[in-house]
Description:
The chain contains 2 helices and 6 strands; from the N terminus they run βαββββαβ.
Amino acid sequence: xxxxxxxxxxxxxxxxxxxxxxxxxxxxxxxxxxxxxxxxxxxxxxxxxxxxxxxxxxxxxxxxxxxxxxxxxxxxxxxxxxxxxxxxxxxxxxxxxxxxxxxxxxxxxxxxxxxxxx
Length: 118
């Protein structure tokens, strides 16, 4: 099992969600966050200077079986990419274990409903 964390533009969230659903990834967690990137700039609006170096992003946290890692990453890459600075990052880390609290199932079986495996 792997944990995929993706930091994406907030404006791309719906597209990424749809792409993940099409790839068979039906459950993930997400948070709206602010961060600091490489771009440092200020914008002036009606004579007031605004610092725009902090950017709003969404972090997705997805746990998948090893066999679903590549299709999950490709779904995110395809849906989130604009080609501009600030498109985000994807991180993949190993997961040592997983348990479904309700049934006690562990490992890969704890991630999916029986009969609906991908």
